[in-house]
Structure formats: C-alpha cells, structure tokens
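Quick start: read one record
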Amino acid sequence: MEFKHYSVMLRETIDALAVKSDGIYVDGTMGGAGHSRQIASRLSGRGRLICIDQDADAIAAGKEKLKDFSDRVTIVRSNYERMRQILEELGIASVNGILLDLGVSSYQLDTPERGFSYMDEGALLDMRMDCRNPRTARDIVNEYSERELFRMIRNYGEDRFAKNIAKNIVLARQEKTIETVGELNEVIRRSVPRKIQVTGGHPAKRTYQAIRIELNRELDVLRDHIDEMIDLLADGGRFAVISFHSLEDRIVKNAFQTAEDPCICPPEFPVCVCGRKSKGRVITRKPILPGKEELAENHRSRSAKLRVFERRVVREEE
C-alpha cells in the first residue's frame, strides 16, 4: 500500500517556520514527507534538513519523495526523543527550525494490518508506530491489570466509562485472549450505554487513542523532550508543533508559555530574583486552526492545532 498522508495545515506550518534558504531544519515526525518536501524545496545547497521517523514505511516513502533533494536531506529512522543525539552525531549544534506533526498518520490508520483503527474489525490489535517494538496493543489489553487499564483509558482517552471498559476487558479475557479489533470493540460496546453510542460517535474511539498513546509513549516523549528541543534552536529559530487532541496541546501550550516567562518569583516581588531567563516568545497566542477549505478536504484535520515558538538567545549584557 502506498504511504499516503495528508499534511495538515501545510501552508500555515511552512509560513510559520519562516524557512531560510541556508538554514538547518528538523522534521521530527516525517510521516508522508509532505512538510519535509516543502521545507527542502526552499533550501539552497547550503541548507540542510534532517528528517526523523520511527516507522519503516514512512522512511521508505520519505526516501522516495525526497530523492530530488538528497544533497540537502538526511533521513534517520528513530524517535524524535533522540533529536539531540542525532544532531550531535551529525555535528550540528543548533538549528533554525523544528517541526513536530504529532499523532497517527493517515497511512497508519488506513492500513488494516497496522491495527490502529477501530473500523477494521478483522485486524489484529497492534498500533506500533515502530514495529521493532516487541510489545503491541494486544499485550496491553491482555496483560494490564484492571487498575492499569482504568488509569490509561481515563487519563489518555478521557473516557467517562473507563471503569466499565477496564472491568469488562478483564472479564472478557478470562474467557478468551482479546486479539482483534472486533473483539475489543464488542467489549467496549457492552461497556457504554446504548444512548451514548447513538449520539456520541464510535464508542471505541477514546479507548483506542488511550492504548496507542500508552504503547508508543507519545505524551511522555513530548513532555520529557519539548524543553530540550527549544534549547536546540538558534537565535530566531522557530518551533512549530501540530497537535490533535487536548492532552498534546496542553503540554505544548504550557511548555511554550513557561519558556517565554519562566519566572517563579512571587507576584508581590518588585523584581525577579529567581534568575530564570526567557528563551523567546510565543508566536501563536491562540493556536492556528485549519481553514474551511482544508476541513472540507480532510475531515481528520478538524481537531488539529498549530502552535509556534520563536527562540531568542539572551546575551549576558542584556
């Protein structure tokens, strides 16, 4: 299957990065390489783009789509949590821009054997973004305790029926290992009131989001490394992040706000004495959202939010 992926807010993101022809940029979640191709096309031979993705299919697709820019593009199969190490190995100290397009790709959702979608009932539960990971969604569903399942579905899926779903998963797997999308869907349907299923969309949506986030450590990686990525930016460098649900967006929003105003002094203090210096400014006071035309073309973009931060290196004399 061809690696097809709709690059959400493509124009808005490229504009936000303010690409310099001789700059160095990192696409930490290359996916279908739509954003990467646009960045690469704006670089001269002196510019450089480092593309990172943990999905082998994305790596293969990216190499094909970016082959015309091989003189300025480096593709690395890894998780963006290793961005600092990757740049160090390439001899790069700082970059002019970083892009993260978070979440799952259209290709992953639309490929049944990847087991991401609750729509492919015959598919095995998998959900690995990196197929080198020995653990799959099946392992989580069949091995986590009821308390762990409840915590995961409540925190990452924000599902008010998390307790029922966790209890019924444990009961169902005592009879038979839950292996397929359809088997898990049936358990979830029994856990959610029918009137909610009629008006609230597919009842499994939030549980699948929770399992995927847990398996791929999505929020942990973002939370643990977003400050580090801000520090990788050169003076004037831009950091653009596209998120698709409130959990991701909250992490990005809070990290950018803290980077701009890190002071922890009590408000009654006349001057700052904590010594924490601002790292730059938030460009997007409110997130950029997809336009009507894009929403009509790609319904999956409806929850997307783009936030942008600009690095400003404070000199001692300042």
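Residues 246-260 form the longest helix (15 residues).
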